[in-house]
Amino acid sequence: MRKLEEVQEAKQLMREAMEWSSLKWLWEKQRVRQTADIANAALDRQERSIKAKWTDDCKAMYRRMSGKQQWESGAPGAFAEVVNSQLQLLIEKTFKADHAAKHAKEVAEDTFDEAERRMSTDLAREGCKKAIRSWELHEKAIREAQAVLEETGKPATPAA
To answer: What tens digit of pLDDT does each residue of 8-19 get?
Structure first.
């Protein structure tokens, strides 16, 4: 997976923002949010591009996983039908990685929202850390999705 310029720029901005004064945060918070949105959109595009190349069977397996509530609760035997093949295990890993990335993104966004409500630079700094973590998790999920593509014998071409 190639590194996305938008994500690298956003990570750098977040690292810088962790050092800002309260006044600097007031002036720059809109730019921080816009940069984060751009990074999220770039990751979403890359993820969609890779998953669009999956076989119909892979897409169907993933949909079955995402449609079962038992999966999230970790109930025993929730996916007895999806455990044996290497491909199924890769799709399961992708599903888990996607779930973790989405959760991390929501937590980061909630932290930024709370920081803005409280006008708290400490919370904003925490939001920066959480945003970086969410992008790292999203990148991991994309790598997992690429592994599914490679398992099916299709070349994993870099997403534009």
So the answer is: 999 999 999 999
DSSP string, 36-54: HHHHHHHHHHHHHHHHHTS
d(CA 150, CA 147): 5
Alpha carbons 35 and 141: distance in angstroms, whole number: 21
Rounded CA gap, 157 and 77, in Å?
Answer: 35
Q: Which helix (H) or strand (E) covers residue 25, if one does?
A: helix 22-52
Per the CB < 8 A criterion, the answer to whether 6 and 98 are in contact is: no
Q: pLDDT confidence of 157, banded at 50, 70, 90?
A: low
13-52 burial by CB neighbour count: b if 16+ within 10 A, else e? bbeebeebeeeebeebbeebbebbeebbebbeebbeebbe
- Domain borders along the chain are 5-151
